[in-house]
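Format is chain and fold; as here:
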Amino acid sequence: MEVNKVLDAKGMACPMPIVKTKKEMKELNVGEVLEVQATDQGALKDFEAWANSTGHELLQSKEEGGVLTFHIKKGE
């Protein structure tokens, strides 16, 4: 998977990972992928709901060593 940009949101509490992600998504072109790294466990549900409500696609989410990694493809 080609990642176009990486956002480090580790250590941020809800809702900051989503707020920062919204800002970064505006910088990307349709079809590009943003990787977000977060440590807030609430982000798992937050990113899924946010992607569904905004038209972006949550391609993947995984957890490794306490760090959640999300790959989000920019929609229309």
Remarks:
- The helical segments are 16-27, 43-54.
- The mean pLDDT is 96.
- Residues 4 and 40 are 23 Å apart (CA to CA).
